[in-house]
Amino acid sequence: MKFEHIPVLLAEVIQHLKLENGNIAIDCTLGGAGHAKAILEAIVPDGFLIGIDKDEAAINRAKDELSSFSQQIKLIKGDFSDLDDILSEVGFLKVDRILFDLGASSYQFDFPERGFSYRYDAPLDMRMDLNQKLTAYDVLNEYPEGKLTGLIKKYGEERWASRIARFIAEARKRKSIKTTFDLVELIKSAIPASARRKGGHPAKRTFQALRIEVNKELASLEKGLESAIKHLKPGGRLMVISYHSLEDRIVKNIFKEHSRGCVCPPELLVCVCGKHPTLKILTRKPVTPTEVEVVENPRARSAKLRVAEKAC
Fold first, then answer.
1. What's the confidence (pLDDT) of residue 231?
2. How far is it, in rounded angstroms, from Cα 293 to Cα 308?
């Protein structure tokens, strides 16, 4: 299958990053390298890009896509939650620009064997890092029913979570749930017909929940954002593109917390906490794709972009 990558909100990313020749930048989620290429074009000849991805295939594609910038890049297979160690390894403890483009990449969705999509029949995998042990198959066939209910409800925000988990638990007593289509059929059976006729594909939320669980995406995001803020230079910019409310809520709350100053009780006349804002929020409301972009790239539909600047 031919892979075609269209970077989401590319014009808005470049506009808000305000890149300059000589910037040190990090793309924490290389994916198809579309954002990385545009960033490099804006910061060379004196700039440098550190590209990170958990997926070995993404690293290999980026090497080809960015081959003309081989002297201005360092590509690292890793998790952005390990940003402290990664930056220590490459020798850049402070950087100018950091981008997170969250979720699974187009490549992972479009290649059936990865098991991310409910549109293709494939083994239940969903690992971004193929070296890790836990797969979606393990989650579905080994997690207790109550734990399945909790993660589908929490990570998928699925109102039918308990029914879906119950149908899964009953089905796996007869035989293991092995493929994406096995799971899709179970989900369709669990959700009443009237509910399946609205709100998009009935398996979408459960697949999202499984992917988040397998890859520990939300925990990685919190840790990665905190590290990114720490490593930004004063005046440096941090940008995050999220695709569902759970991600966006984490980004919004962390940005808000770091933009707060004094937290002393109002009755104190003098600040004793010594807390100063570490971020200035530049997008009070998230930037969303234009109608034109959504038509050209339907996967951009749910994207939300938030930007903050390091204050100190």
1. 97
2. 23
pLDDT tens track for 159-197: 999 999 999 999 999 999 999 999 999 999 999 988 888
- Angle made by CA atoms 296, 300, 303, in degrees to the nearest 5: 155
Q: Which CATH number fits domain 108-215: 1.10.150.170, 3.30.1060.10, 3.30.70.20, 3.40.47.10?
A: 1.10.150.170
Residues 6 or more apart whose Cβ sits within 8 Å of residue 24: 47, 48, 49, 50, 92, 94, 95, 96, 97
pLDDT digit string, tens, across residues 62-82: 999 999 999 999 999 999 999
Fold of 10-105+217-310: Rossmann fold (3.40.50)
